[in-house]
Amino acid sequence: MPNLGTTEIIIIALVVLVLFGSKKLPDAARSFGRSLRIFKAETKGLRDDDTSAAPAAPAPAAQPVAPLPIESRPAAPAATSPSVNGVAPVDAERR
C-alpha cells in the first residue's frame, strides 16, 4: 500500500470538499459517525448473543431413529354402486 504524505491528504481533502460542499460535509460526517456507532453496537450485540447462547453442558447424543414399519392393509373395497367409465355416480345428497 502506498504511503500517503501530507500533500496527498490535502489534495484528497480538497477534492472531497469540492464534491460534497462545505454545507453538506458536516452532515455527511455526522451520518457516517452514527452509522459506525450503530454497526459497532449491533456487532457487539451479536457477539454477546453468541456467548450467552453457549450451552453450559453438552447436549446428549441423539439416538438413532428406527424406520416405521410398513403396515399391510387390504385394498379399498370397490364402489358398491355401478360405475360408468370408472367414475362412481354422485349421490343427490352431496350436491
From TrEMBL:
GO terms for cellular component: TAT protein transport complex. Keywords: Cell membrane, Membrane, Protein transport, Translocation, Transmembrane, Transmembrane helix, Transport. InterPro entries: TatA/B/E, TatA/E. Coiled coil: none annotated. Its main location: membrane. The keyword Iron-sulfur does not apply. Residues 53-83 have a biased composition (Low complexity). The keyword ATP-binding does not apply. It is found in: Cell membrane. Pfam families: TatA_B_E. This is Sec-independent protein translocase protein TatA. It comes from Parafrankia soli.
